[in-house]
């Protein structure tokens, strides 16, 4: 069991401890009643998450940051628990049209934040630099299911994919981006987005960063949806003509993270 800093212990009810089962990263998320403690390895991402959560407060629904601390080379973030359920809740998996409309509203909420003084630039130059670091330090585990979904057979290694991404950079349209816009990171209550979590990659990035991962998340959940549902309806709800090259590009880029 990870140690909890004394200052945080004083703010939570330790008897209500309950662990999250959803997260797949190496962070630990513990629920204490209406509060949530996220413990991550000391990193730029966990630091960015704390800052973005504070910066986004009042602009879009995010948890309130209650306390942050560096302790034993770990980053601790104590925040309020979001109301509602995750977008991957069984209720919404059974109602994908309603779900897609809510996700489209969530994307529009982010794009409506016009004040870009958040201080975190997540443009391609920066993302590719981080991707290169991950490739060089052997931190990449390519997911064959994603390549199968894209019908992609070209890439034999992370280096190969990285070089292709470097050579095929699309033009960027900067907006406020969540950075990991997938169903478990979006909360819904009463048919509306009630909050966003997992903000370690949030910042200013191309519009298609979030469109692509939202679309991927819908496609990945298709097996749970009724058969007549078409994930491409996301684009109608966003009122855009999809740029398939960019969608491919950002889904492939995410493989290096
Ligand atoms: N403030 C919060 N309120 C409610 N639930 C939360 C909160 N923070 C985290 N969770 C829950 O914990 C899960 C994991 O949290 P988060 O996504 O931040 O961690 P992670 O380990 O980075 O996850 P992953 O990398 O797998 O997406 C979320 O999907 C959500 O269900
Ligand atoms: Mg998450």
Architecture blueprint of SSEs:
Layout: H1 6-9, E1 17-19, E2 28-32, E3 35-41, H2 44-56, E4 65-71, E5 74-80, E6 85-86, H3 90-93, H4 96-111, H5 124-136, H6 144-150, H7 158-167, E7 174-177, E8 186-189, E9 192-196, E10 203-206, H8 207-220, H9 233-238, H10 244-254
Antiparallel strand pairs: 1-2, 2-3, 3-5, 4-5, 6-8, 7-10, 8-9
Helix pairs in contact: 4-8, 5-7, 8-10
Provide tags for this entry.
257 residues, alpha+beta, Phosphorylase Kinase, domain 1, Aminoglycoside 3'-phosphotransferase, Chain: A, domain 2, 2 domains, five-stranded antiparallel sheet, three-stranded antiparallel sheet, 10 strands, binds adenosine-5'-triphosphate, binds magnesium ion
What does this structure look like?
By secondary structure, this protein is α+β, with helices and mostly antiparallel strands. The chain folds into two domains: 6-80, Phosphorylase Kinase, domain 1 (2-Layer Sandwich), CATH 3.30.200; 85-254, Aminoglycoside phosphotransferase (APH), C-terminal lobe (Aminoglycoside 3'-phosphotransferase, Chain: A, domain 2, Alpha-Beta Complex). Helices cover 38% and strands 19% of the residues. The protein contains ten helices and ten strands. It has helices at residues 6-9, 44-56, 90-93, 96-111, 124-136, 144-150, 158-167, 207-220, 233-238, 244-254; strands at 17-19, 28-32, 35-41, 65-71, 74-80, 85-86, 174-177, 186-189, 192-196, 203-206. Strands 1-2-3-5-4 form a five-stranded antiparallel sheet, covered by helices on one side. Strands 6-8-9 form a three-stranded antiparallel sheet, covered by helices on one side. A two-stranded antiparallel ribbon has the order 7-10. The longest helix has 16 residues, at 96-111. The chain is globular and about 50 Å long. Residues 20, 22-25, 27, 29, 36, 38, 63, 79, 81-82, 86, 184-185, 197-198 line the site of adenosine-5'-triphosphate (ATP).
């Amino acid at each position: 069991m990870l140690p909890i800093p004394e200052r945080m212990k004083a703010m939570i009810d330790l008897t209500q401890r309950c662990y999250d089962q959803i997260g797949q990263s190496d962070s630990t998320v513990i629920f204490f009643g209406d509060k949530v403690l996220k413990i991550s390895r000391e990193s730029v991402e966990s630091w960015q998450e704390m800052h973005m959560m504070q910066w986004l407060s009042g602009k879009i629904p995010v948890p309130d940051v209650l306390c942050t601390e560096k302790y034993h080379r770990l980053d601790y973030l104590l925040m309020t628990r979001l109301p509602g359920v995750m977008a991957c809740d069984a209720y919404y998996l059974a109602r994908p049209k309603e779900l897609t409309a809510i996700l489209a509203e969530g994307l529009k909420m982010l794009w409506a934040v016009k004040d870009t003084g958040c201080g975190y630039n997540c443009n391609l130059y920066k993302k590719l630099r981080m991707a290169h670091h991950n490739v060089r330090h052997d931190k990449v585990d390519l997911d064959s299911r994603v390549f199968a979904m894209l019908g992609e057979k070209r890439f034999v290694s992370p280096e190969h994919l990285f070089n292709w991404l470097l050579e095929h950079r699309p033009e960027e349209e900067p907006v406020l981006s969540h950075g990991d816009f997938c169903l478990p990171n979006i909360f819904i209550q009463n048919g509306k987005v009630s909050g966003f979590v997992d903000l370690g990659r949030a910042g200013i990035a191309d519009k298609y960063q979030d469109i692509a991962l939202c679309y991927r998340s819908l496609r990945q959940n298709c097996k749970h949806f009724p058969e007549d549902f078409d994930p491409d309806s996301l684009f109608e709800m966003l009122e855009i003509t999809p740029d398939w090259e960019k969608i491919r590009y950002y889904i492939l880029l995410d493989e290096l993270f």
